[in-house]
Amino acid sequence: MTVSDLHVHSSASCDCDASIWEMCDAAVQLGLEAVAFTDHLEFKPEDPCYKRFDYAKALYTFEKARSYYDGTLEILFGVEVTYWSDIEEEIRDYLRDHQFDIVIGAIHYAPPVDIWSPADAEYVKNDHLAARRALKTYFSQVEKLAKSRLFDAVAHFGIYQRYIRTWPPVIGDSELEPCLMSALDAIVRYSRLELNAATLHMPVPLPLPSVEVMKIYKEMGGLTPIYGSDAHTPSKVGKDLGIALDVIKQAGFGEFASWRDVVRPNGPRLKKVSGDEGVSIP
């Protein structure tokens, strides 16, 4: 079975120091068929990666890497976009004017809770109203993300659980479960899920999304999920692939989607690279 890691970062992301060459070498050593570089693209000033993604520079590096690894590793030029419903048109305009092989969408926020702060675990545990508002916000934004039809996959669905595990139960809750179901319905209709492996090697492993959520997604007719390591270092490329495969099998899927299932027909991968003969690693 061949596997594609379709959520990998490189130094084109503000939060990653690894070169595209290092990440590709790691993928080759693992025997992966393909990797997609989905570096962070941010549209709001409060994000540390705001205006840090250089499309032209990233594309140039991608083209050189694609030529160098031709016949050894399929490389896709992608992007991970933090979606905000209030600037959807700005995101749409950018994606119209800049071509990618794959675009994954993510929600990285759930106010009033800071989901990236473990210190907010007590806040979530003690303030049930705030926790419920945060979950409703998250699911609502995921639903809008999917309905925008801008994204080939939804990244790390359930990311709010990564650092905070004190959330109220969603399934079985008369208010929260319908919000979850609406988000999943939109994903099934207009996109697909990623099984994000970044949390599988935490002290308390947690697949994103959970097996329970992935089962519901499968029952609703969801497309085969993609595998994403969310790697920011070479050692994390293809990380916990076996565990991730077990997760989707528990949900009823036989394997992960191939890169061929999600690659865009008009992306840079299909464009001829000129003057790239004899490319060497810098």
Give structural notes.
The chain has 282 residues and is an alpha/beta fold. It has a single domain, classed as Metal-dependent hydrolases (TIM Barrel). It is built from eight helices and seven strands; from the N terminus they run βαβαβαβααβαβαβα. The model is unreliable at 272-282 (pLDDT under 50).
Describe this protein with a few key phrases.
282 residues; alpha/beta; TIM Barrel; five-stranded parallel β-sheet; two-stranded parallel ribbon; 8 helices; 34% helix
Count of spatially separate domains: 1
The CATH architecture comes to Alpha-Beta Barrel
H/E topology pattern: EHEHEHEHHEHEHEH
Shape: globular
CATH class descriptor: Alpha Beta
The major sheet is characterized as:
5 strands, parallel
CATH homology-level superfamily: Metal-dependent hydrolases
Q: State the helical fraction.
A: 25-40%
- The largest sheet has its strands arranged as 1-2-3-4-5
Structural class designation: alpha/beta
Percent of residues in beta strands: 5-15%
Poorly predicted segments: 272-282
Radius of gyration: 18 Å
Enter the CATH topology name. Answer: TIM Barrel
